[in-house]
Amino acid sequence: MSAKTPSITGKIERYFSLWRKVIALLKYSSKRLGIFVFIAALLEIMLALGALLAVKLAVDDITQSASASDGVDMGRVLAAISIVLGLFLAGRIMHSVANYFRAAQGFVVSDYVNRAIQERAVAADLSFYDSALYYDSLERARQAGAQRPAQVIANALNVFRGGMMLAGIAVVLFIVEWRLLPISLIAVGLMLVVQVRFTRQRFLLQRRLVQKERHASYADWLMTSQPFAKEIRLWDIGAYLRAQYMKIRKVVRKDYLAIERRKSIAESLVSVVGTLVVFASAAFILYRFSTGQAELSDLIMVVLLLVRAETAGRDFVMSLSRLYDDQLFLNQLFVFLDLKPVMATGEVPKPLPADVKQGVALEHVTFSYPTSEKPALEDVSLRIRPGQFTALVGGNGSGKTTLIKLLCRLYDPQEGSVTYDGLDVQDFDPVAYRKQFSVIFQDFVQFAYTGRDNIRLADLGRDGNDARLLDVARLTGAHEVLEDLPQGYDTVLSRMFDGGVELSGGQWQKIALSRAMFPESKFIILDEPTSAIDPNAEAELFDGFRDKLEGRGALVISHRLSTIRQADYTYVLDNGKIVEEGTHAQLIGQNGRYAEMFERQGRGYRS
Fold this sequence. Notes:
The protein is of the alpha/beta class and 607 residues long.
């Protein structure tokens, strides 16, 4: 079924909705800037129209002087010309001043909008990142770059300025020769229709191609980003990725150029009409002048007004067209800014227990990702007690990382519950609850910041020069890594910036371990914390591990069972289910999956 054509009422509502959104953006700018912009625009228009009127008066004065018996008064003529030039100069200066205030206002609003987008992106539930629709809405909100909000404000102000200029020209033209006003308005109207029509077509095409453009951007990112540089060269896939990129860009370019071609033809036809209007108007006034029905100043004034009207009309129509495009952008922006986290929390979050006795637990939890029919976890129960070294083992894809995300309340389960000292975690403030955990994920972040900042980002409430930072760095072996760098702890850990260095995978893992140990949290979760560390460094880390926990509960995920055997209690996860649990001795005695894994690894060392 085709979409219904919007009614007149609907179109009017959409029009006012546009201006409500523009005003919503403007209110985040300085009120003083807004007043300056308004006054500057008003003065600019008054000076421009004043200059045109001064031309008419100067021509009248010169004509009258020329017909007088005593000849032309050159002093008076020069004075009139000076006034005209002075008004034109003042108008140009005021135009520059107005542009400055408009730019300043645009930048203020742009910074606000970008901050709002960043806040919503950070506050969004992790589940949003599992949705292509989320990425599309974010892409549309950010489309055209960081300066788009500034463009919205500039276009709105240009529409206001252009509209006032056209209104002033219309008033003067009506006074001089009212019969020319209707055909001038028709020419401006034709320009407006063309611009709005093709702006709409571009927007619809943009929405249709957003997935393709994201694929192209991804290919470009692969070719130009450091994390993929090694594989691209080893596998020699640069040409393949370029071909993928160009294939998509060719389709995108073809569709956009088809619209631009039709727009160019339509604009050319409108320009012809506009030129004919100016020519016909000039001819009409020339005829009236030749028959004595108009003054020479009227002819000059009408020509100047029509030329000015054509320029002002084109600027007004272009700005209004861009503002219509901005309406489409603003709709996408405000849709994204209206995103709310869906994780349930009580109206008045409960305070977290000061002393944790029972620990944190999953109780018969089942969880599926939005795009998957198969549960990632099914009827899983697990507990981490304070001061206890708990281990979790399982094959790739068994659901270990998903389990961590549920423990930290990055997701909520569809069935069962996550409890903290016996209380449902949905009763707590999510941010406060997550601060009870220090986590190192297998794919931990390597920030292009200094070594000191890479550690302290886990707890920004602490000073970067805190003695604890050095203590945890020594505990994990990161101290030796950072001390040997050119600026020590203050060396940037990326060649992305001048003076930065690159670390090996094992060195980075020590930094990440320090980051996890730095906060004085109640629980620490380590996902494959030593996968890139040599056996000696691993032995040093886990030697006296319980003492290093400082009373915290720990969940360690590792494929190295030599580490896991030190745990107080171990869970075995397979295909989303807990299939075994117990101490090392109990699990070996069960002669099940854990015993099989342990025997296989031990056989490798013995052979």
